[in-house]
Design goal:
It contains ten helices and seven strands. It is of the alpha/beta class. Keywords: Oxidoreductase.
Amino acid sequence: MPKEPMNSFASKWALITGASSGLGLDFADLLAAQKVNLVLAARRRESMEKLAADLRRKYGVDVVVEAIDLAAPGAASHLKSSLDARSVTIDVLLNNAGYGLHGALLNTPIERTTDMIQLNITTLTELTYLFGRDMAARRSGHILLVASLMAFQAVPSYAAYAATKAYVLALGEALHDELRSHGVVVTTLCPGHTATGFDAAAGAATTALLRLLTMKPRPVAASGVRALMEGKAMVIAGLANKMAAFSNRLTPRSMQRATLKRIVDG
């Protein structure tokens, strides 16, 4: 397991979106272990309240639960206003909420696709803007955007999802340079296939090859937090995933698509 990050966010407030499951659970535990106070934001209040109670007991940190549908239009502004009313200043933003849809675009109800785009792109961008603006004014802050290994190529059966993550990667790398002079670090984490329940939520079966490539969520989350603390622009979790991303520089895009189709669909 990768070495976990050192304690440089202690006593600050971190907002974790998508905090009720998947990588959000490990982000929360990693930061709470470093004495970071947390705001947990997702739809499922009951699971977040249980997580909050566990973190308070284990680490003695303050934890605020915000039950909110982040895919709803205006959710980012609503969340920001709620935290402003509580006088909670966010020093670390982990834009983790998001999901994928497996299957042909034309066979997927367009409402589901646009809901995914709203969450993966629009809400993420709004949260980054709203909290990033405050950080820039204070000349201090850290933002982690969670993209995907799929951000590096087009992926049949995940066409719209991969496109949303390509947006997140491009946005994050650009903002890393834009906000650096304002004292704000922006880092983009690109996980490969991770044991988070992503496939079940996306409506996909896990192929034998994907099972071989699957990482546990803890080292993925730890690599993202560590890269954020080190001020990196981007990190790909796992050696095999780093090699896969690098190989894209050497292969035709048609070959990339064919390879990903075999990996994803068998």
